[in-house]
């Protein structure tokens, strides 16, 4: 079976805070402002325009017929964002802090030999930004 597109859906507490955070990171909104609203917003990630929808927590729980994962105290998934250089990784870390996110691993060459940082948005959704290494 083949499908056209895949996207992610995350639960958030505050749509306005989420919009402010991802706009500060320079991400492009998916769709027009009229397609977003008090219950959801979405953004495009990367050159392929991978879409992440951010729904108010109660709306996503209703659709899923149950509770969503507690992203503050666990890891549901971690998305990886490629960077062209170590400076770009550092810039991401700086912008995340300015926007109100949290850094879980500082931007540096980590124990595994790669240069990256791990951050969370204001709702605890995890991302890592790593320098693109040939062959990855």
Automatic annotation (TrEMBL):
<dbReference type="Pfam" id="PF00903">
    <property type="entry name" value="Glyoxalase"/>
</dbReference>
<dbReference type="InterPro" id="IPR004360">
    <property type="entry name" value="Glyas_Fos-R_dOase_dom"/>
</dbReference>
<dbReference type="InterPro" id="IPR029068">
    <property type="entry name" value="Glyas_Bleomycin-R_OHBP_Dase"/>
</dbReference>
<feature type="domain" description="Glyoxalase/fosfomycin resistance/dioxygenase">
    <location>
        <begin position="8"/>
        <end position="128"/>
    </location>
</feature>
<protein>
    <submittedName>
        <fullName>VOC family protein</fullName>
    </submittedName>
</protein>
């Amino acid at each position: 079976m083949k499908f056209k597109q895949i996207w992610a859906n995350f639960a958030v507490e505050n749509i306005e805070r989420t919009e402010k955070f991802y706009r500060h990171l320079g991400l492009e909104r998916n769709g027009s402002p009229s397609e977003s609203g008090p219950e959801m917003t979405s953004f495009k990630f990367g050159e392929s325009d991978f879409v992440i929808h951010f729904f108010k927590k109660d709306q996503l729980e209703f659709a899923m017929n149950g509770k969503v994962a507690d992203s503050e105290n666990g890891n549901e998934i971690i998305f990886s964002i490629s960077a062209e250089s170590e400076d770009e990784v550092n810039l991401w870390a700086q912008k995340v802090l300015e926007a109100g996110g949290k850094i879980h691993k500082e931007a540096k060459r980590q124990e595994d030999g790669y240069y990256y940082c791990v951050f969370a948005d204001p709702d605890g959704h995890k991302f890592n930004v790593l320098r693109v290494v040939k062959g990855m």
